Amino acid sequence: MINTCLFGDAEQCLESLLPEYAGKIQMCVTSLPYFGLRDYGLPGQIGIEDTVEEYVQKLVSVFDIVWDLLADNGALWLNLGDSYAGSGKGRYSDNRAYPTGMQAANKGNVSGKLKKTPLSGNLKPKDLIGVPWRVAFALQNKGWYLRQDIIWNKTNPMPEPATDKCTRAHEYIFLLSKERKYYFDYKAIREPTVYLKNQERNKRSVWTLAKQTAHIKHHAAFPPDLITPTILAGSKEGDIVLDPFMGSGTTAGVAAGLKRNWIGCELNEENKDIQTDRIIKLQTKILNENSQHMMAI
């Protein structure tokens, strides 16, 4: 079952893993569908709920199963973009902009029907819903330790037509754990210091890099360099990395290149060929880069 993507509803796929893998998966890294963005007409699709509360509860149910699959010292790295209430534009409906970052890699193309983001509770049209934090706090309330919020600072964000706010140039990555003490190899992701030559420091919580621009049959797939630190810090070689929303297979490709095993779940079976191609290319690229680095040492 390892190094395989299961196709179908996320909860059902994850439940099928429990008999063999409960407590055996070291880490989960994934990115979630936007709330109220598009309806792809797929049974079991997440993101088309009537209210943000229903959306959050659906995700909590998914991660209840992830909890059971993770080792006690395992961790969850979660990326999620925000939405505006009542706009009908979780992102834009033409070719100027698409779901960015990890979300795009998990969605296939963006040909689905544009949805109007539902209003609920005290939300007003144009309100920023705060979806990432709602999900993070809901998971915290279920027992997860909310350890950190990481900012992905995008150097080349998509332009936005709004003239009454700044252009969004960041996304969140949350680090959550099952226990107070969990596996985190900080040495594996240390970064060069700014002022001292040949010195390293603990990685900071703002990660600056461009969004993916390569053409992989997906709009704006997220950069492998964004996910690499999560896998290096969250697992050892030979460990199992889980992605419940596999999309184009970036998680699997990076995991394989870093000599980790992986398991994925994906609703849209049309992504199968895209995954196969991307996994092979990423694995080969990362293995070659690491080999050249070792030879240079």
Automatic annotation (TrEMBL):
Q: Which UniProt keywords apply?
A: Methyltransferase, Transferase
Name of the molecule in the record: Methyltransferase
Biological process GO terms, please? methylation
**A GO molecular-function descriptor:** methyltransferase activity
E.C. code: 2.1.1.-
- A family per Pfam: N6_N4_Mtase
Q: Which organism is it from?
A: Snodgrassella alvi
Its family remark reads: Belongs to the N(4)/N(6)-methyltransferase family.
Q: Where is the DNA methylase N-4/N-6 domain?
A: 25-274
